[in-house]
Amino acid sequence: MMPEIAPDQMIEQLRWRYAVKRFDATRKIDEETWSALEQSLILTPSSYGLQPWKFIVITDQELKDQLPAISWNQKQPQDCSHMVILAGRKVVDTAYIDRYMKSVVVTRQLAADAMDGYRNTLVRIVEQIPNHLDWNARQVYIALGQLMVAAAMLGVDTCPMEGIDTAAYDKILGLEDDVFTSVVGCAVGYRHPDDLQASAAKVRFDRKELVEYR
Ligand SMILES: Cc1cc2nc3c(=O)[nH]c(=O)nc-3n(C[C@H](O)[C@H](O)[C@H](O)COP(=O)(O)O)c2cc1C
User: In this structure, which CATH number among 1.10.760.10, 3.40.109.10, 2.60.40.180, 3.40.50.300 belongs to the domain 7-85+136-210?
Assistant: First the structure.
């Protein structure tokens, strides 16, 4: 089967991507493009398919204007087109597992009890996971990676952002007593033509150091 995208094209897009320092505040992502990027978040794989996340997309300029103050004074959340806060579930409880199992049964048109065995195993497994938010945050980072790569394939710029005050974001987004909490951010939009970072050489260790074949 022919690959959908040629290997050299894929690498070209990944090399084109860089963590944007300065976004062009005048450029917004169009609806069709954003809708595809939204799908890249939704289609992210997760452990057991549990999707222990919520993606909060900030486009309101008044809200965006308040974000540098809670992002180590970084301007990307203010100037980008769509600021995504990737939030993780604090707890995966039995009720949530049941909700997920119900969605499997409905989506795949299975018998009502078809997932019962799997469900019971999963309840036992999840009970043994010491820190659910830790586990869920790792899933959230997969969504971050998928969003950045998907954006790069469409020629859309991103900046992954751990330099945010997640407690302050929870506050501003009304998540303080929610089942979700902010984990990491991703500013999405278009690079400013004067962002010098765009022309900085990529810094990566040698492949021989990073990849081992056996
Ligand atoms: C999880 C994560 C958090 C990051 N947080 C920030 C951030 O808060 N601000 C920023 O300017 N860059 C941030 N970066 C960007 C990294 O510094 C950058 O990805 C790295 O230096 C490699 O450069 P490149 O992405 O341009 O290839 C973050 C990257 C990752 C993966």
Answer: 3.40.109.10
Residue 68 Cα to ligand 1 middle (Å): 16
Atom nearest to 164 CA in ligand 1: 8
- Read off the pLDDT of residues 103-142 as tens digits, 9 standing for 90 and up: 999 999 999 999 999 999 999 999 999 999 999 999 999 9
Burial class (CB in 10 A: 0-12, 13-18, 19+), 83: buried
CA dist., res. 136 & res. 90, Å (int): 8
Write out pLDDT tens, residues 166-202: 999 999 999 999 999 999 999 999 999 999 999 999 9
CA of 93 to the centre of ligand 1 (A): 33
User: Does 21 sit in the ligand 1 pocket, CB within 6 Å?
Assistant: yes
pTM: 0.97
